Amino acid sequence: MEISRFPVPELAALPEDLRSRILAVQEKAGFVPNVFLVLAHRPDEARAFFAYHDALMEKEGGLGKAEREMIVVATSAANQCLYCVVAHGAILRIRAKDPAMSEQIATDYRKANITSRQRAMLDFAMKVSRAGHEVDEADFHALRSHGFSDEDAWDIGAIAALFALSNRMAHLTRMQPNAEFYALGREAKR
Amino acid sequence: MEISRFPVPELAALPEDLRSRILAVQEKAGFVPNVFLVLAHRPDEARAFFAYHDALMEKEGGLGKAEREMIVVATSAANQCLYCVVAHGAILRIRAKDPAMSEQIATDYRKANITSRQRAMLDFAMKVSRAGHEVDEADFHALRSHGFSDEDAWDIGAIAALFALSNRMAHLTRMQPNAEFYALGREAKR
Amino acid sequence: MEISRFPVPELAALPEDLRSRILAVQEKAGFVPNVFLVLAHRPDEARAFFAYHDALMEKEGGLGKAEREMIVVATSAANQCLYCVVAHGAILRIRAKDPAMSEQIATDYRKANITSRQRAMLDFAMKVSRAGHEVDEADFHALRSHGFSDEDAWDIGAIAALFALSNRMAHLTRMQPNAEFYALGREAKR
Amino acid sequence: MEISRFPVPELAALPEDLRSRILAVQEKAGFVPNVFLVLAHRPDEARAFFAYHDALMEKEGGLGKAEREMIVVATSAANQCLYCVVAHGAILRIRAKDPAMSEQIATDYRKANITSRQRAMLDFAMKVSRAGHEVDEADFHALRSHGFSDEDAWDIGAIAALFALSNRMAHLTRMQPNAEFYALGREAKR
Amino acid sequence: MEISRFPVPELAALPEDLRSRILAVQEKAGFVPNVFLVLAHRPDEARAFFAYHDALMEKEGGLGKAEREMIVVATSAANQCLYCVVAHGAILRIRAKDPAMSEQIATDYRKANITSRQRAMLDFAMKVSRAGHEVDEADFHALRSHGFSDEDAWDIGAIAALFALSNRMAHLTRMQPNAEFYALGREAKR
Amino acid sequence: MEISRFPVPELAALPEDLRSRILAVQEKAGFVPNVFLVLAHRPDEARAFFAYHDALMEKEGGLGKAEREMIVVATSAANQCLYCVVAHGAILRIRAKDPAMSEQIATDYRKANITSRQRAMLDFAMKVSRAGHEVDEADFHALRSHGFSDEDAWDIGAIAALFALSNRMAHLTRMQPNAEFYALGREAKR
User: How much of chain E exceeds pLDDT 90, in percent?
Assistant: First the structure.
């Protein structure tokens, strides 16, 4: 199965900055996640996307790294985005050290083995993703009652917003996840 | 996490026929899938459910066993049923000998690595599950054009219908999947 | 109009147990409800369906028999199931001794002439039927506040779940109600 | 049960023209349909409503009188309007001389015992009622292919539009149908 | 672009009462709004429509004239009705003396520069328009808590109901707004 | 009314690159569009957003600049995003030299005064925005039949995807459009 409906560039043909970035990921992960190659068909858009991604997913802040992946998996599942559920599901399993977490969050986060604070975080993220026009003060209050700051609220909402974009790019390009992702993080906790 | 909102019977306290059935499953699978214990709270309903299940899932017919599990996983994911997606996802991976199949079918079967015949099968199953009142002759024609008989159509639709029930029982009881299911069938094909 | 898209067995050709059951119904009702003949095309599935039906609809418990029919009519109307609305609407009129009840429940149960307890029962049933994944503790509390036990909650939810199956089988088979049902229970109360 | 959330005028207190009209209906029908009393709380609006109603429902044209009632019942059922389904269901049974017609059209017009021309008529009416913004030339072509003129198309769409108003007024006022309607037209054809 | 899918009558060919009415509007507005010509294709329906319109939009009462236009614009935007959003948006800008009001109400009234009382008014109107069957006592209480009488509630709901009709007639006829409307009321407040 | 729920930075306090960019916009437009100030609360995210925006909206390609704004307005209206509809509506009116275009596209693009090619473009954009998981080969074929290349398809889909993000950020921050936007481009064509 093709990894994209659109032409996929050769690594060697990419601009130097994108190639370096991709090689660094490859060294760390052991493979090149398809999203890098698929989006690199448009280098300027790819640079903007990865800059946006890092600004939200790699920064310090009130949300744990596993929690950010929960947001990605829950909203991407609601959007039926195969690439994001599979790739970020793998990262979630690894960061949460829990092989069951990805399927729980993707299928029905209301029944997942998470804290009530995380449940509130996902309720907010899902509202931004699915009915953003209805977000109002009461939603911010609900987050604050679980100890989230308003900056955390921005993070939660902005991650949901970024993957609203990402999910649609995956659908547009018919992006396929790498086979490697399916196997990552499946070993049980001890 | 509790496996049910409702009382869960002790195996020893169950009627003989249900206990035997459950012990047989345990011997084969190595554990007792929670659905047996959760539904056994109501023995008469449990007997009817398992009889219905076997009549559709264990019979001979035009649908392969992996294909029947595809129907369960696709429609259960649309209904956000954690138990059925996780348990039948495991069975699907094993029967399809494909560790990627369950997440593909659960997240977006339109992008799964399946045949066009299987795609037509899932389109029909999803229509029965989500908008049954709109099923009409054109849907049967579409199945026939992929080589399905009308008896196959009954099988597809009836499996979707049975899991419409099953998904709702899982939501009603807040049924949790066994931890074992998450790990099954994850080894890559060779 | 055919009563099913699929072949309908002759009564004489049916297995003895199904034939006996159907003859008993015919003796009591004066006619054979089409659901028996349509589903008997698959004897094993038919046996399981009727066993499930009786386990929920004929048992003792906190729900009255008319109330169980209310659940069937309300959820089947939401699913646009002609057979179930017409057949169970007739039974509801008879059991409730109220010729107006079936249309009220089928069209808009919020405006029906029922108790607030029955309204709560139908709100719960509709949530299980339409958005089961959102059922949570608050819904059980609402039932308890109207005097329902948790076993009653199981009954309400399980009836909604069974007719989620039944409605889809009726759509799959294009099942038509018997003409007799339309006229039953139309005489006014005195 | 009150027939309206709002004050209901005494017949004697109504303006002469409305009172005469209502007495004429009473003489013909044997009772005063509640819609007349409920809407007469606002005489000017009531006059406009009944003028609109008669302009569409009593005029000559390509649609039979039973067919117009089919449009009312199908769209009102989709809007869950108890008053309109019960009152116009009764008129439909009488005009169609068919005691089964009202429940068939209200529950699932796709499975009703109607002609393919009437099916096309109801498809058009439902689209105007439910997704009017999507009505386009293809919908008019479909009507023409069943022998409807464009003036008939106006009639179909305008009846659906008028009952979009009527259904909402019934919900606003919590209008209850007269008990008499439930019993009308239930006798079987011979 | 044609202003209607249907024949549009010559002003001279119209019945005297409709022609007089239209000439009066023309004198006041400087042009003939297309709705008059498009609906006049059916004089009896047109008379009823304009009588209904005036009974609700021109009467005295607790709602200001700009507020009534807010209801029209909010519900018509939800129904994607180009004619009503453009024509009544213009009237709203003029009556509210606010060039920004129409786009705010049409796009997302929750973020418009209106009072909390007006917000409650629009919440009620939208519920009548979009989910009238769910209107209940709690909705009337919400209005009363903002100082609306029950007669005001009727006005709000009835305007929403009338434009449910009007929007569908505009879709049916593919009614186009006059070019003049787009420019009206755009000058900023001082 | 505040322009954001979150703190809005002083221009003087911004990093040099963002300040320069904003000053350049101000010089060209005569005012600082609020989106720059609202998003600059998070400089890294703001940089990524504007880079993404320029990569899609300022590039050469098969889509005209007015056409790109049509995509923004149509999808933002479907998401009920006040900021994007008002700000990009203004740009659309200017680029299309048509004061009526923004309201037509925002309210119901199916009835707008656009070419059939533009209609196909908006159908594709709306599908990516509202039901991206259903985008398939048939949608690309439809674009090609109107002369769009696959690179154009990427542009259309990517703009819809970017504003899926943008609309959600506007909802999250309760972003308000500048008063200036409402008045721009309202003068009629000659």
Answer: 95
